[in-house]
Amino acid sequence: MSRYYIPALGNLYAKFESLVLPLLRAGLGIILIAHGSQKLFGLFGGMGLNANGALFDRLGYHPGMFWGTLVGCTEFIGGILLVIGLFTRPAALAVVIFMIFSIQFTSAKGFFWSAGGMEYSILILLVALMFAVRGGGDYSADRSMAKEF
C-alpha cells in the first residue's frame, strides 16, 4: 500500500529529492549575493558601502562602516559560499545571526514584507538555520571534502 494519495507521484518525488536542497541552497545564496552587492557595491539600486555605513551609524551600530561592511560581506561572501556549498554550516550560521538582528530592525514595521516587515527576514533565517544544522548536502563542495563543519 502506498502512503501517497497519488502513488505515481512517489517516483517523481524520489527522482527530484536529491536536487531540491541544492536548489534551495543556491537560491538562498543568490538572493544573499544580490543583497550584499547592493550594500557593498551599490549594484541593483543599492546604496553602496558609504551610505550603508552611514545607515548603520544612524541605527546606533558604531562604527557604522565596520557593521555595514560586516553585514554586506556576510551576505555577499556567505552567499557565494552557500551557492557552491563550501563551509555551508558556518556561512549559514552567520546569516542566522544577521537575520536575528534584521528581524529586530524590521519588526517595527509589522509582519508583512510588503510593508517592510519581518516576514522575509524570518524566512531567510529559517532556511539558513536548516543549512546550519543539516549542512550543504548533495552537490556541495563540503560533501567532496574529507571533513566538514
Report what the structure shows.
This protein has 149 residues and is mainly α. It has one domain (20-137). Helices cover 70% and strands 0% of the residues. The protein is built from 6 helices and no strands. Helix 3 crosses helix 4 (88-106). The radius of gyration is 18 Å and the shape is globular. The mean pLDDT is 95.
- Uncertain residue ranges: none
- Describe the main β-sheet briefly: none
The ordered string of helix (H) and strand (E) elements is HHHHHH
Structural class: mainly alpha
Helix content: 55-70%
Mean pLDDT: 95
Shape: globular
What is the end-to-end distance? 40 Å
How many E strands? 0
Q: Give the radius of gyration.
A: 18 Å
- How many helix segments? 6
- Beta-strand fraction estimate: under 5%
Integer tally of domains: 1
How would you sum up this structure in a few lines?
This protein has 149 residues and is mainly α. The chain has one domain (20-137). The protein is 70% helix and 0% strand.
Fold topology:
Elements: H1 9-41, H2 48-58, H3 64-84, H4 88-106, H5 119-134, H6 141-144
Q: Features of this protein?
A:
single chain; 149 residues; mainly alpha; 6 helices; 70% helix; globular
